[in-house]
Amino acid sequence: FNKGLGKRGGQFNFRNDDAGSRISDGGSEIIDVLAAGEFVSTLKNDEMPDFIKLDIEGAEMDVIDSLDMYIARYKPDLAISIYHKLEDLWSIPLKLKLFCPEYHIYIRHQSNYYTETVCYATIYSVDK
Q: Is the pLDDT of residue 128 over 70?
């Protein structure tokens, strides 16, 4: 699907910057966005994604909240950026464990800069 994923759907202005492209009233492009909860409710069981990556410039928690029942039921592997808001560092992993206590949570910083910290969640243990 060549569309954005958000708390609510519709068409939005999008600012296409090299660092931090995002939905913005001042954006010069128009993009289509699907409401996350509505989108997964239209899928059949065999179409459900088993991996979801979210790097959506601070709106990660909104999408996670709209996918609460989906996450609890299907337990997809997740890779979610947790550096856009300070509280995301702890609130996103805690929320994921609340929705799916079976998740193993791993946090990895992916760059030499302060950005690009990712929370991984999976029901499979990667401990050795």
A: no
Encode pLDDT of 26-47 as tens digits.
888 898 999 999 999 999 989 9
The radius of gyration of the chain from alpha carbons, rounded to an integer in Å, stands at 15
Q: How many residues does the chain have?
A: 128
Measured CA to CA, the distance from residue 116 to residue 108 in angstroms comes to 9
**In angstroms, rounded to a whole number, what is the distance separating the alpha carbons of residues 105 and 91?**
12
The 3-state secondary structure of the chain, one letter per residue: CCCEEECCCEEEEEECCCCCCEECCCCCEEEEEEEHHHHHHCCCHHHCCCEEEECCCCCHHHHHHHCHHHHHHHCCEEEEECCCCCCHHHHHHHHHHHHCCCCEEEEEECCCCCCCEEEEEECCCCCC
